[in-house]
Amino acid sequence: MGRVAELAGVSVRTLHHYDRIGLVRPSARTPAGYRAYRADDMERLREVLAYRRLGFGLREVAELVDDPSADALAHLRRLRGLLRERRDLADAMVAAIDREIAARAEGVTVTPEEQLGLLGARLYDAIGGAYPATRRTEPRIAARIWEALGEARTVVNVGAGTGSYEPADREVTAVEPSAVMRAQRPAGSAPCVAAAAERLPFADGAFDVAMAVSTVHHWEDPMAGLREMRRVARRVVVLTFDTDEPGWQDRFWLTRDYLPEFAAVLADFPSLGGMAEAVGAARGEPVPIPWDCADGLFEAYWRRPEAYLEERVRRAVSVWTRVGPEAERRAVRRLGDDLRSGRWAERNGDLAGLDAADLGLRLLVA
């Protein structure tokens, strides 16, 4: 027990306590008669300590590790999801602190409500809670996706988020690793499985179609996730982004003139050709973005530039968190200056007559 305590970084007293309450009981004996841990005991101890270090109480930990539906791999996936959410929370907190530091440095008074918001519910809003405020189903984009589903009856929506583009007339199973996003799915929406795209917990060919909408860039290993979609479904439909076209960064005035850091965000993103090959699609079909797009995705406000000055709009788009607070502040400041001076209108006056714009969204259909 002493050696196990040393390896685990806990006290022998802690291990005795776990043994006494039945949380982790060593089930073997040494030749001298001392109690010892078998491999499965060590695995259970690892799970207990991991959940404890994430802040779970002993009663909660006991319920988690005694869950009959979860094996060691399921626990690892759950722990990974919790850690990624913790990382996202830390990133959002750092961004909030940076904004307050910048405000104080400029002599701006920070209200008590804003100070408490750094640690309270508004911080969670900054991570995921702001999403439903501006991210809704855009009917014209939805029509393209649903048409691509064809006659499929069973659909798995990978990286489903709040389920904006899930068809109501099909049997849908959603997959979403984030508890924050799962909690925001509306009542009556499709059942949602907590899992990652790269490791879908389904049998080969379990669905007619696997779909993914504006989510591939969030995956840890996009190509692995796409191959998994191909494995679990007979057909695949993916709405994603094209970085194959030379000068793709200049398609959108926001990334061209104000946020060049966006190129680095997608530096490791797979090519459209590579993604198409992974799912067996012949090509990527352009999906123009309407000027009055209801879904507040990154490019949605291409003809409504004032929207990018709104905090609630930016918080619902991951790009702003990815580029960091300094780039965000600079982009917003320069855009605001150009809107007030009329420079933005001079550079982009030709957009006023367009009803839709091709800004790189592509639909892969296999």
UniProtKB/TrEMBL annotation:
Protein name according to UniProt: MerR family DNA-binding transcriptional regulator
Look up the signal peptide feature and give its range. Answer: none
Q: Which PANTHER family match?
A: HTH MERR-TYPE DOMAIN-CONTAINING PROTEIN (PTHR30204:SF93), REDOX-CYCLING DRUG-SENSING TRANSCRIPTIONAL ACTIVATOR SOXR (PTHR30204)
Residue stretches in coiled coil? none
Q: Which InterPro entries match?
A: DNA-bd_dom_put_sf, MerR-type_HTH_dom, MerR_fam, Methyltransf_11, SAM-dependent_MTases_sf
Give all residue intervals belonging to the HTH merR-type domain.
Answer: 1-67
- GO MF terms, alphabetically ordered: DNA binding
Matching entries from SUPFAM superfamilies are given as:
Putative DNA-binding domain, S-adenosyl-L-methionine-dependent methyltransferases
UniProt entry keywords in alphabetical sequence: DNA-binding
Tell me the domain of life: Bacteria
